[in-house]
Amino acid sequence: MAKxxxxxxxxxxSQRFWSKVRKGGPDECWEWIGAKHPDGYxxxxxxxxxxxxxxxxKVHRLSYEMHNGAIxxxxxxxxxxxxPSCVNPKHLYAGTQQQNVRDRAVRRxxxxxxxxxxxxxxxxxxxxxxxxxxxxxxxxxxxGVIATAFGISQPYVxxxxxxxxxKHLWDE
Length: 172
Fold this sequence. Notes:
The protein has 7 helices and 6 strands, in the order αβββαβαββαααα. By secondary structure, it is an alpha+beta fold. The strands form 3 sheets. The protein has a two-stranded antiparallel sheet. A two-stranded antiparallel ribbon has the order 3-4. The protein folds into 2 domains: 13-113, Homing Intron 3 (I-Ppo) Encoded Endonuclease, Chain A; 117-169. Strand 1 and strand 2 (31-32) form a beta hairpin.
């Protein structure tokens, strides 16, 4: 008679890794489709049997280690492709924090390079719309009514009110 086992079967993270990767061609990004942090980096439960100091590990680091060995002390695992959910070992390299900051500046990835207002490709509003929203807010209109009128969410109107979005228009 077979022995019964109870509880979850604990496998090494590398065994679970491949079931969560959408593998493309050798030069394409291999997308992590498992759990992700809000910043886009994938992570996986490492458990105490893998590394006693870490319970979770970022999957791009795991991919690097599976294909290249240990990450050298003091170095980070960086992406050539600027895609935080990519785990293709061809797109990963070990580098310093200084290299990462320099790459960010050269590739114009940081907050300081984001486009504001109408120049942002994701903007649903024009400056004219936001000026009308500000006028409506100053006249005492409710945020929910304004949101409905402009096809946006009430929390987005709140960001305008609290000058977290479109703040440059409040000073005009």
